[in-house]
Design brief:
Largest sheet: 8 strands, parallel
Shape: globular
Helix content: 40-55%
Structural class: alpha/beta
Radius of gyration: 18 Å
Number of strands: 12
Number of helices: 12
Strand content: 15-25%
């Protein structure tokens, strides 16, 4: 009689989990050149060992969810850099394999917005001039390639626009992998200007969405947003802001002051967040402090 396989980890939205931090910062710490339109996906194509090392640094810091290096990856973007469709599909799968090998309980496959692939800061504006159908057509092949590698969840992240969220929810509806939906927001509005409550409401009846929230926004935006997300959707919230600095797409530099306080993780959990971490400019050392704060309360 064959023994039953050991049980896997419980569904990732049923208890509080620590996410990783900004992958780009960890990759730069490993010595990666992220210039050009592929950004972190460049390291995926050219230096997978350093991607693995960046993931491992977050696991050592206590991250329980590792996010793949596919945020800015697309078939179109890979093609512009001489990578054909079959090779690009393998790289999407490789992103999941590398994250899985880091040893965290869960892997979140990153599906960044259309604006991220443009490489011009469009993820902080939205309103690309494309229809929902056109955006769905763009995202669906990326979703299918990532889903084929069997991550635990798809992270629909840094979404600036409710219309793009609508397209992403359509593209992921039948992929067989649960998703979280995370907007980048300011003053309880999406970056495209829609009320955040209306944007969150898109996910309320979507059974494949396990959590809704915000990322790559200022830390001060998070508490109200996650409370609103939980109220509007009845689902757990996800929260992983950046350091509070502002990205200047024209100069390619971060400006302003870093104000990320790991102790805010306790406030976000109290407001309904169950998936908590950091985004740009939040490195493994801050993730370790989030883990300590959450474990000690």
């Amino acid at each position: 009689m064959n023994a039953s396989p050991p049980p896997g980890p419980p569904p990732l939205h049923e208890h509080t989990l620590v996410l990783d931090g900004g992958l780009s910062d960890a990759l730069r710490a490993e010595g990666c050149d992220l210039s050009g339109g592929l950004w972190t996906a460049r390291a995926l194509a050219e230096d997978p060992a350093r991607v693995a090392a960046a993931h491992a640094a977050h696991v050592r810091a206590g991250a329980e969810v590792i996010t793949t290096a596919s945020y800015q990856a697309s078939f179109e973007g890979f093609a512009r850099h001489g990578i054909g469709r079959a090779a690009a599909a393998r790289l999407f799968g490789e992103s999941v394999r590398l994250a899985r090998a880091a040893g965290a309980p869960y892997v979140a496959a990153s599906v960044g917005p259309y604006g991220a692939v443009l490489g011009d800061g469009g993820e902080y504006r939205g309103r690309y001039g494309l229809s929902v159908t056109e955006l769905e057509r763009f995202h669906r092949p990326r979703v299918e390639a990532l889903a084929a590698a069997a991550p635990d969840v798809l992270a629909l992240e840094t979404v600036p626009d409710a219309e793009e969220a609508r397209a992403l929810l359509r593209a992921t509806r039948d992929c067989g992998i649960p998703v979280w939906l995370s907007f980048t927001a300011e003053r309880e509005r999406t970056r495209a200007g829609q009320p955040l409550a209306e944007a969150f409401a898109l996910a309320a009846e979507a059974d494949h969405v396990i959590a809704v929230g915000v990322n790559c926004c200022a830390p001060g935006e998070v508490t109200a947003a996650v409370r609103l997300a939980a109220e509007v959707t009845g689902k757990p919230a996800v929260a992983y802001p950046n350091s509070g600095e502002q990205w200047d797409a024209e100069t390619g530099e971060w400006r302003g002051e870093a104000v990320f306080d790991p102790l805010l993780a306790l406030v976000w959990r109290g407001a309904g967040a169950r998936l908590i971490g950091g985004c740009c400019r939040v490195g493994p050392e801050l993730i370790a402090r989030i883990r300590t704060a959450l474990a000690g309360s």
